[in-house]
Each structure stands twice: as C-alpha cells, then as structure tokens.
Amino acid sequence: MSEKHAVAENKALELAEEVRAHRSADHPVSPQFISRWSARSYSDQPVSDDTLHTVLEAARWAPSSSNLQPWRFIVAKTDEQLELFRSFILPGNRIWADKAPVFILLASSKLNDKGEPNGAHAFDTGAAWGTLALQAHLLGLSTRAIGGFDRAKAREVLDVPDELELLAVVALGYRGGLESLDERFHDREKPSPRRNLSESIIEAKARA
C-alpha cells in the first residue's frame, strides 16, 4: 500500500464531525462502516488507473454463490466514454453526476457456466458493490449508486449482450465541497441515518 493510500485509509477510519452529527452505532463496529456515505459532490481531481484498479480489485474478492463471480464492471473514464454514460443517465441525476470523473456500470451475468439461470447473480453483484464502495472510501474516494438511468439505451449504446443484467451506475471520484454541487442538493448533502437494528431483526418462529 502506498503512503498516500495509507494516509487516506487512516482518515477514513476516523469518524468525521459531520458523520457523528447524523450517525451512531447501536453496537461496536469498525468506523469504516459508519463513516462511508453517498455524497453527491465531486471535485475535478482525477482518479488514477492504479486507484481505480484497487477499488475494482476489492470488488473482485466479494463472495459469490458457487464462486461464479457474476459481476461485470463497464468503466467510463475518458471524455468520450463519460459522454456515452451521460446519454443514458436520467436528467435529475446528471445535475450532480456530470462532475464525477469515473462511472462504473454494474452488470451481472444471469447465467452460470452451463448456460443455466443463476438465481443469485444480482445478490452476488450487490456484495461486489458493497465491497467496492468500502474500498473506495478507504482510499478517500466517494461513491454513489445511480438507479435512475435508461437501461435499454445503455444496453444499445454500450452494445451490452442480453445475458448481462444492468443493475446500477456508480459515480466515483474525490469529494468536492458544497460550492461544486447544485444548490438544490445542499440540504441533502449529509450522511443519512439508519433505523435501529432491532427494527431489522425478525426472530424465527414456527407458524401458529
């Protein structure tokens, strides 16, 4: 790990004041899980290929059913590639996403090695997305997943085969300040809270 990446990781493991103001854990966990959040503001600082590949390398090691690794990463980083992505990202998201220096279209193979349906493909690719987001945060990067895009147009523009399902576009880059973000999003540019853990746990019990 480079010294630059080590410094970014140490910073990511600290809870910033803006995070403390909106988030607290019910039980002890690593600060990396609490401090990562999906900002919309991006600076004009470029993301190096080495850094991008480290983010994708982390995603490569996500768990998957039968080790099928269904995830695929369609990456845009040149001006020409970014314009292709902007052609199918919906206008409401482009207001903030246009400043991101990297887009990653997360896709998943719907079939296993035998050409049979893989029922876990989207679930497994979700695990890869979570791993990608955490690694990006440890490197001092921001990520935000975009569900609002025209999937049919994306498939056509990028010539994506039918056996890949298009799940989300991820904006990746270094976080910018509020001055780099459209004022319509200023009030929303803060870490979102989570419901209490007890509200998500369902105790197993036999049917009455």
UniProtKB/TrEMBL annotation:
<keyword id="KW-0560">Oxidoreductase</keyword>
<dbReference type="Pfam" id="PF00881">
    <property type="entry name" value="Nitroreductase"/>
</dbReference>
<comment type="similarity">
    <text>Belongs to the nitroreductase family.</text>
</comment>
<protein>
    <recommendedName>
        <fullName>Nitroreductase domain-containing protein</fullName>
    </recommendedName>
</protein>
<dbReference type="GO" id="GO:0016491">
    <property type="term" value="F:oxidoreductase activity"/>
</dbReference>
<dbReference type="InterPro" id="IPR000415">
    <property type="entry name" value="Nitroreductase-like"/>
</dbReference>
<dbReference type="InterPro" id="IPR029479">
    <property type="entry name" value="Nitroreductase"/>
</dbReference>
<feature type="region of interest" description="Disordered">
    <location>
        <begin position="184"/>
        <end position="208"/>
    </location>
</feature>
<feature type="domain" description="Nitroreductase">
    <location>
        <begin position="35"/>
        <end position="83"/>
    </location>
</feature>
<feature type="domain" description="Nitroreductase">
    <location>
        <begin position="94"/>
        <end position="174"/>
    </location>
</feature>
